[in-house]
Design a protein that fits this description.
Elements: E1 6-13, E2 20-31, E3 34-41, H1 44-47, E4 54-56, E5 61-63, E6 70-80, E7 87-92, H2 94-97
Antiparallel strand pairs: 1-2, 1-7, 2-3, 3-6, 4-6, 5-7
Amino acid sequence: MSDIGALALVKFEYTDKSGWKVRPGLITGEYLNDYQVTFITKEVDKYKHENTSIIIDNNDLAAGRLKQKSIAGRRKVMKIKNKTSCKIMSILSKKMRNL
């Protein structure tokens, strides 16, 4: 079964490579044992103008929950080399996965 459309807790590395922070991410692709994950933020107003972003709230989830309305965008995407390095916390509804 595919994990595309799942929201997961992921270690995102700082752009200057000085460290990392655990943040929520949306799994947008997978290949073998790797994921492609896009950054999720609660700064909806700041990024809602981007045409590749989607706004997500609890009504958009088939399972799990978010603390508040969030936005996922393609401006910050990373590859996770091992699926076991993140923890799935919720999943988008079928309707949202088909957007």
